[in-house]
Design a protein that fits this description.
The chain is an alpha/beta fold. It is built from eleven helices and eleven strands. The strands form three sheets. A five-stranded parallel sheet has the order 8-7-9-10-11. A four-stranded mixed sheet has the order 3-4-6-5, with helices on both faces.
């Protein structure tokens, strides 16, 4: 695969700037950094347009801080999802400018400005209990340079609340709709807008909600056209997809 950094390294090697062993190490590090516990993908932004995102769940605070420190060396904007406050404190000790979103459980570090899109993403959540997933989606969408509007607590149990915001929602280029329980809200929104709708089932609900499975199946079986569905509680995945659509 083409890598401009590698071409520069090879050219410098030809000019005698460093040894063959040093050139080999620099080529390897342009693609990945081996931290022992993690192989940081340094080349992802050049391949896919977006740097690697740190999924923090299951990692220790020390590992998360180590990954942030390594990515920070390269001047990347860094996003960590599903991060505990303890993990954030470990990162903040070495990178004071890191920021934490409490409900979304995200850590962000901005090293360079990202131009904002003219068009926007609307993020619509059924209930306040869905706010952690909605905030993860908001932070992710904003991280990738999107204008974002969050409309919360407009579920179908009081559908007049949704109608009060429908004109705002229709102005967005893409709509993320987040709901637990029976997962009905995306079907309703999908029937009212002419934009792509990305549905996010959440694990909110009583026993027969089966941790979000009922909402997931309801959304997959939606009769409204133009709806795509991501995994349960996956606010990040929905926002990443929405960002790609909004940047087209």
């Amino acid at each position: 695969m083409q890598n401009d950094d590698v071409l520069k390294i090879l050219e410098s090697y030809k000019q005698g700037s460093f040894s063959l062993e040093e050139a080999e190490q620099k080529v390897h590090s342009s693609y990945f950094s081996d931290l022992g516990h993690t192989m940081v993908d340094n080349n992802r932004r050049k391949r896919s347009g977006a740097s690697e995102v740190i999924y923090c769940a299951g990692k220790t605070e020390e590992q998360i801080a180590h990954i942030f420190a390594e990515m920070n060396k390269r001047g990347d904007n860094i996003l960590g999802t599903r991060a505990s406050h303890e993990a954030y404190q470990a990162v903040k000790k070495i990178i004071p400018s890191a920021e934490y979103d409490v409900p979304g459980r995200t850590i962000t570090l901005i090293n360079r400005d990202t131009p904002l899109t003219e068009t926007s993403i609307a993020i619509v959540s059924a209930g306040t209990s869905d706010l952690p997933v909605a905030r993860e989606a908001c932070v992710t969408a904003e991280f990738y340079g999107n204008r974002v509007q969050l409309i919360s607590d407009v579920g179908v149990a009081g559908i007049h609340r949704l109608f009060n915001h429908i004109e705002e929602i229709r102005k967005a280029r893409v709509v993320i709709v987040i709901a637990g329980m029976e997962g009905a809200l995306p079907s309703v929104v999908g029937g009212l807008v002419d934009k792509p709708v990305i549905a996010v089932p959440t694990s909110v609900g009583y026993g027969a909600a089966f941790g979000g499975l009922a909402a997931l199946l309801g959304m997959l079986n939606s009769c409204s056209s133009g709806i795509s569905v991501v995994n349960i509680d996956n606010g990040f995945g929905a926002a990443f997809q929405a960002s790609m659509i909004n940047h087209l």
